[in-house]
């Protein structure tokens, strides 16, 4: 049985249980787990270790307990928007440090788990209730910088990179504000469905 680990911030967390590994929350990890488990029953064990509010430095701080000790065969990581969002409270992570810590995280994971397969997801943002006041001059350009950093890291390690911003942008053109990302950051069930679909497409290529 293969183990799949979902790692990230509140977008991944999605109200997951802290005591029952079978309760993966209400987001894309649950959609992916349901899809894979119904197609291949008994083939996979799933862990969701997303933590609401996390930045890249927070994921790095729990690398042993929430990544290495779980010994996953596969891991996906979606992180970056809080590194921007928390900057409004002088607690963000600038792009250079974000990329540096992201690189360190992957180096240490591969050192401990050389056979692990990792997928990196692009951080994203849309205009919404939490982002509208400074979307064009802060949120969007800063998140794009973190996304570019994730893409560079993926290239450095020759890892699959799942682009998401363009998909959300195109869909948003036809939909009401908040339909995909309720507040501009956190996905609705529709937004989680978009992520899950892209995740599954990539996983089929690497499994």
How would you concisely characterize the structure shown here?
The chain is of the alpha/beta class. It contains nine helices and five strands, in the order E-H-H-E-H-H-E-H-H-E-H-E-H-H.
Give the helix tally: 9
Segments where pLDDT lies below 50 for 5+ residues?
none
As for the CATH topology, it is Rossmann fold
Q: What overall geometry do the principal axes of the alpha carbons give?
A: globular
Number of strands: 5
| Ends distance | 13 Å
User: What is the CATH domain class?
Assistant: Alpha Beta
CATH architecture designation: 3-Layer(aba) Sandwich
β-sheet strand percentage: 5-15%
Structural class: alpha/beta
Largest sheet: 5 strands, parallel
Across the major sheet, the strand order is 2-1-3-4-5
Write down the domain tally: 1
List SSEs in N-to-C order.
EHHEHHEHHEHEHH
- Radius of gyration, in angstroms, nearest whole number: 16 Å
The residue-averaged pLDDT reads: 97
Oligomer designation: single chain
> What would you give as the CATH superfamily?
SGNH hydrolase
Indicate the percent of residues in helices.
40-55%
């Amino acid at each position: 049985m293969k183990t799949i680990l979902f790692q990230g911030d509140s977008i991944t967390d999605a109200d997951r249980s802290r005591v029952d590994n079978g309760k993966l929350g209400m987001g894309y990890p649950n959609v992916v787990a349901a899809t894979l488990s119904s197609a291949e029953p008994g083939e996979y064990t799933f862990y969701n270790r997303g933590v609401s509010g996390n930045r890249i430095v927070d994921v790095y701080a729990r690398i042993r307990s929430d990544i290495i000790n779980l010994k996953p065969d596969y891991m996906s990581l979606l992180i970056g928007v809080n590194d921007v969002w928390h900057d409004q409270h002088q607690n963000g992570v600038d792009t250079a440090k974000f990329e540096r810590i992201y690189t360190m995280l992957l180096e240490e994971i591969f050192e401990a788990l050389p056979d692990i397969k990792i997928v990196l997801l692009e951080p994203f943002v849309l205009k919404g209730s939490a982002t509208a006041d400074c979307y064009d001059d802060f949120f969007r350009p800063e998140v794009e910088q973190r996304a570019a950093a994730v893409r560079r890291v993926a290239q450095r390690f020759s890892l699959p990179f799942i682009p998401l911003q363009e998909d959300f942008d195109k869909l948003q053109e036809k939909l009401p504000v908040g339909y995909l990302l309720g507040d501009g950051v956190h996905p609705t069930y529709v937004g989680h469905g978009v992520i899950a679909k892209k995740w599954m497409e990539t996983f089929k290529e690497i499994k």
